[in-house]
Amino acid sequence: MQADAPIETLKKTKQLFSYGGENMDINMISIAIIIVIFFLMLLSSSIKIMAEYQRIVIFRLGRLLGIKGPGLVFVVPLIDRVIKLDLRTRVIDVPKQRVITKDNVTVDVDAVVYYRITDPEKAIVEVQRYEVATSLLAQTTLRDILGTQSLDELLSKREDLNKSLQTIIDQGTDPWGIKVSAVTIRDVSLPDEMMRAIAKQAEAEREKRARIIIAEGEFQASKKMTDAAKLYEKTPTALRLRELQTLTEIAREKNLIIVPAGEMGTVAGIAKAVNTKVEK
Fold it and tell me: What is the fold of 90-190?
């Protein structure tokens, strides 16, 4: 029994080492899987795919490295910081601004600004938040420019004001690498009292034009009648023919009887007297 004891001890020791080797193999496999997964995650974070309208600005350890894209771009994870930009035309809906015009009329005006990024490096380095900066600049410029115009100019010269706003805002955003392509004044809201005053003014203007047109018609008609009178004076026969034509036109109205003065009236009076005597 004592001779078998060392043999049993050796068997147990051998089994213990075999179990330890199996555990070691499992741990090595787990570590390898974790390393592979970490490597794949690192590789995926280092690959960027940019569309045709996209660019990325890369900062390496805080220093500007450059602009990359479109297509496949490689960056160094944990070292490079990337900022993605969209180069397509964007739209800013400028909220309503209360503007006091040159003739002291308070109006609410809103506009639409179309812009795009032309220099991604300047858009990130030269200004903190280019979208907010462009929107605030558009609001300020809208109030400043429209405040120098009268209400009539604001309503009638909107196309010229759009071009002026576009030029001024574009000059302000040019150092930021932003191009303003168009500005459109969308709506001008007037107080109710001013709308009623404008309606009265428009009604008076229409009445004025109507009176002028009537007066011009009377003037032209009087000139023509003067010319006709001179012609009738030279040719009395034409006057007689015109008189007969007028009687013919009047005869169409059966309830109207006209006896003109002159020879025609004398003839008509004699005829009536003869008819009365015959009847008696």
Answer: Tetrahydropterin Synthase; Chain A (3.30.479)
